[in-house]
Amino acid sequence: MKENIVKIIVSGSSCSEWALSLAASLEIAGVQAQSHFFCHRELCVKLTQSLEMKDVFLVQSFCDTVNDYLVELALLADLVRGQGALKVTALIPYLAYGRQNKPQPAQSTALEVVVKMLKAVGIDQIVTLDAHGPPFQNLSSDSSLISSPLVSLSCAPLFAQAFRHQYDSCLQDWVVVAPDQGGQRRASEVAECLNLPWVMMEKKRFNEGEAEEICQVQQIKGDVQNKNCFIIDDLADTGGTLRAVVKALKAAGALKVIAGVTHVLDFTKIQDCGLHFLFMTDTFLSVCPVDSWVKVLSCQSIFEDFLRKI
Prior knowledge:
Oligomer: single chain
Structural class: alpha/beta
Number of strands: 16
CATH architecture of the largest domain: 3-Layer(aba) Sandwich
Helix content: 25-40%
Number of helices: 7
Strand content: 25-35%
């Protein structure tokens, strides 16, 4: 990190331990904002630390009570800006509303609304991990985008490192799988890190955006017969995509099927999807299962690398 401006990490209530650990790793100050609810869940946020002429990094992950954490971040941003912060950057490991990033008939483009709201309260830059898509800029494809107002960091190196540590003795038997067209970049990044081939699935969703959404794989572009498959995905919520992809891969002759998923929102929904092993990150901090077929990876190092470069 550049030394000429004092930097400080300010944590919201969703991931205070994670945020303060990040501050300690970077050897910069870290403080936790104080928040409490009035009746009817009206939120009050307080911070007594002096922030005048400092670069402030607000840390908040939108897990569990998403809207409470969103409002808390907005109040916190307004507070630190009012205290004279020089620049305000929001580090949001899991950015809710990311799936609602495209205009749909009779529906708000919710991600656009969230971004506008956070900018309006004084946030200069939003940094998240494996954003679902535009308008976030993928830093792994162009490092010059490090100052972009909307930055998406990649989990690919983290998954590749964890995979190599566990399966390095038999890499030649593996292929990386993109579960859909939107996942091509993530899968290709992991494949490049591991020097492995990759394939893509073509899928179709029914009842998209509804609670009972159904996913159906229509085609596998590539050969998976007698291969072990490593699925790379950004998000698992209902488990529909993973379940359909695992089923299609096994029907096509795949052997072992594992996955690397950045944001697992409900682990109970993917327990029975047929995976042999799962790598997941800790962006949704309340979902950190202890199970022999699951390894939870800390994404702290990804944000640490980003902060050291700016």
